[in-house]
Batch of 4 targets.
Target 1
Amino acid sequence: MQWLEETFHVSKPIIAMCHLQALPGDPGYDAAGGMRKVIEMAFADLDHLQNGGVDAVMFSNEFSLPYLTKVRPETTVAMARVIGELMRFIKVPFGVNVLWDPIASIDLAAATGASFIREIMSGVYASDFGLWNTNVGETARHKARLAPKLRLLFNIVPEAAAYLGDRSIADIARSTAFNNRPDAICVSGLTAGAETDTHVLSTVKKAVPGTAVLCNTGCRLDNIERQLAVSDGAVVGSTFKVDGLFENPVDPTRVKAFMEKVKVIRSASRAVV
């Protein structure tokens, strides 16, 4: 996919998650450590990810559990502060994800100059967060007003949720591509860190051959070759953490080992071509 290589400067890019700690207003916020602790932890993770060779980073409020589908202003503002303080250290293309609110994600992208967002932007779901509705027409118009060049990564298999309506994943992918012209479609497992079903990835890729398809969760050292054989790239979070656990900080050794394998996979792919 041409835009992927133009944005990330490689084929089959690895977009690493920089998970921000709980923010002001979140149930898990560390008031004693305050925003300074959030920024320090984000800086450490960003440093390890970039030194490990990832192709891009995506900042998300991953520890704002339980998530809102319409976030409060303090969350977006806090994320903008973190990214603003880290801006001079960011060396790779970056994106943002304000969970689970595409309008707020676009706001944050416009304020920080992010290249892309990932969100649930279309569909209606039964989820752990209640009935989850979207308004993709409003999202598209908001993007057109604030950030027309922003790339939209549509997650069509949201974590902890099921599509309301008896439609196959192939049909959902086709209609999403036709109606919304996404820059990429993301395919996920059940939760953060849960492996994405390769068969589902393949089904989506065949349904929308002209659209980039990204593996969105559960990529590991032992499955990344299989996942990249089908997908056009991957979003990677938990596998880069200490012991591969979502709750832990980034482990630089795991990042380097993973990205070295990705480089081997890319070299082999170029040799075949």
Target 2
Amino acid sequence: MKVLIQDFLLMLQFFTRLPINLNLTCEKENFKRGTMFFPLIGLTTGFIQWITYFLAIKVLPDSTTALFVLLIGILVTGALHIDGLGDVFDGFFAFKGKDKIIEIMKDSRIGTYSCIAIIMDLAFRYNSYINLINKEFSLGIIAAPVVARTIFVLLFYMGKQAKKVGTGNLFIGNVSKKELVVSCLLGAVITGLLLGLTKALVITAAAVIATLLFNKYCEGKIGGLTGDTLGANNEFVEVITLILAYSIKL
């Protein structure tokens, strides 16, 4: 049990900016076991955003509350996945071949496509938060990161490594059926409790389809997945979940 708790904390250290100042073991096996807790990483992020909404909406207008929810999400994650989204758009729209695409994705500078992608991502999120607040489907704020982090594990399981060396390789191809099943069951339970079974099933199906298509697209462009493409998929799935959470009437 102690090892599992440490692996969960390791994932929190890795994927959030929460102040967990512990010296934890960082072997490949720790990252493998840690993937089982990805839905809980999403739950932690989403819950912090939801608490922000719950407190802010009492004294602030909907639009300002939505901005704070958006900002808190960025601060908690350190914009890790948004950065990946921007890098992917810069690289994939370069039309230069696999090696050049990966080189562009590694560049710390951002280009036009990256700027557009990030702006649109934030705009969709902001609009979705306002709609969730107005329609009183606020638990979608929590559900979005839960679904996205659960889908991460599916990508780890079925994806191929596009690079020989990279942060994403700590996870890509480093997941067995055990971790996949545990994370999916955990994610399904949490999402079902938040959104209701029917809506959760529809959203999960949409997220899986989008992820399968994106994975296939990545294989065609660069031969597999990198940390940046993982981050981009996270943003796609979160936005899809947010939109469907308020637009589906069940």
Target 3
Amino acid sequence: MTIHTDHPTTALDRRAPDSGERFPESIPRAAVQRVLDNDRRREVLRCLLAEDGPLEVRTLVARIADAETDATSVTPLLERRQRVHVSLCRTHLPLLEDHRILSYDRVRGLVSPGATLSAFESLLDVGALERPVGARLD
């Protein structure tokens, strides 16, 4: 593996190779890295891990849009939420569903934990599972 010093390290990179933690065989390392390389996808995972069951897409959109809100932003709330909704529904949720990390019911507008979601818990910042309202995403 080539180490690129210009790329930030992630939790996946910082894990000790002999830590005993095993990632599900069904998700290649490159796919895990792709999932964790995006702020919105990480936040989706955090929100699902913090919930006990399914989460409405509109609730997820509101949480992510609020977390991305900048005090100096002039973009109206509705427009921000529309942008987040489009990116989640067209890009992020389908990708996460493809890897069985979540289940996305487009008709009912629900996102449920998938078979491999729990494996990501150790890769995410556990202290950030429940972010305060208005907290910025990294």
Target 4
Amino acid sequence: MAQRLATEFVKARLLLPENQMSKFIEHIKDPLIRHRVRVLDGGSREIVLEDENGEEVSLPFDRRRHLFVCELSFRLVNPRLTHLVRRLFVAFKGDGLVRRIYPGFVMLDFYTEGSVRRIIELTKGASRLVFEHRDQLPELEYRFLSTDIEKEIEEIRLRVDRLLDRRRSCADAAEIGRIDRLLRTESERLFRLEA
């Protein structure tokens, strides 16, 4: 596994309602990371996170009506501080781009509302889509509402009923054998569709 060199949060954005600011501060639960909260003019906040090695990051939250808006771009090297910031970013539904820098390649993670929507790997002269979130709900709803299989099952049952009626009234052994083969085929199809 490649060793991560750094992580960059590029054009990252967090929107917190007023009542979530205290939850945000409580969410910082790492004994090796200190945090300071500064209250600025107009009720804005600046939260400074500092790890045991002295690396620090400042999260400026501008107060806009009943929201705290944090727009930031920074680079982190320490894995513990990076993990904490990423956890906060996910828990409080951040949007933006996160660049994970490794020797020889870069991974771009595109976040929307705290979830990764796309991951792209960049190497010298090439890019590769690693992951892309697709909304499968419409497809699942279509399949759920689709009655094609139920219609086919009903058609098979009608054919089976007709074949059974023909078999009951038939006296020819060769014809009965042919009907039995058709019944076997239809019952196998019915079994597969109902499963």
